Amino acid sequence: MEEMLMNNLLNGERETQIQAANELGKLSRRQKHKLVERGIIAPLISMLCSQDYEAIEAALLSLLSLACGSERNKIRIVKSGIVPVLLEVLHCQSTTLIELTVAAMLIHSSSLENKLEIASSGAIQRLVEILNGDFADDDNSYGRISVQAKIDAIATLHNLSTCHQLIPPIVSSGVTYCLLQLIHSSEKSAGLTEKTIALLENIVSSSEDALQEIAAACGAIRALVETIEEGSPQCKEHAVAILLLICKSCRDKYRSSILKEGVMPGLLQLSVDGTWRAKNMARDLLLLLRDCSSFGSRSKQLKNELVEQIMQEIDAEGDTVAGTTLRLVEEMIAKLSTL
Prior knowledge:
Strand content: under 5%
Order of helices and strands: HHHHHHHHHHHHHHHHHHHHHH
Shape: elongated
């Protein structure tokens, strides 16, 4: 059967090639390995270069089936020159093909050996364009991109960002502002927001330029505070991590800006009922914020005294979240809202 599939892909007519590509996905891992050794990757990539959407889809699915679960095949496929071809497919008018293409980029970017080659082909900027929804083409086909494709694009960028050498080109692509806009416009507890803010944390923790860009961006701190209030546990964890990095980068400069956005109620709540990492970071951020109102109006002084009170209770409880502490936090939040 392997011999017939190989021959059909190399020498068959359109319908025969498409059928052969579809059949490839049904083969066992051993059979696929034999076909890869015989050079099946090249004719599949050739099918991607056609203008036939059905042939492109069949080839993409076949290549995905070869790459899944095989680090060796991922590397071979990228070395065979698939990345520039995938970037061209992204200009097509089919949302299905765009989704499959981004999924292919994601799978191949998971291999450490592929990261630099993928980035050097111009993939970073193209992925950011997908997130921005601003295809260069007049028909603006990026505007029809699905949420899943955006999630896969973000995950691909996250894979690439784990290579320290790629942080500068990722930052220079304008992705930080793009991610901030996605956080601002998306539901704070959605899966898209989780992927977006996780990537943003990874970037700003590796790049001082990106951190300062986010800190200075209009509405950035507010969006992060809203995420702490409304996001999923994972979103809250990443949001407080970014705020902590911002505050640590220049405490005197950003402390008041963070407080002005009303971070204290959400931060106090997070310090007792967030994830383990979120609780620790929330407490660290509280320590940086709690003594900034030692002068000024009576209202500010009262707020500071309440923060000091709850911090003492949290410190006394340690990692144990007692019911009394949680009730005290809830009472504290109510009091803060009235001051």
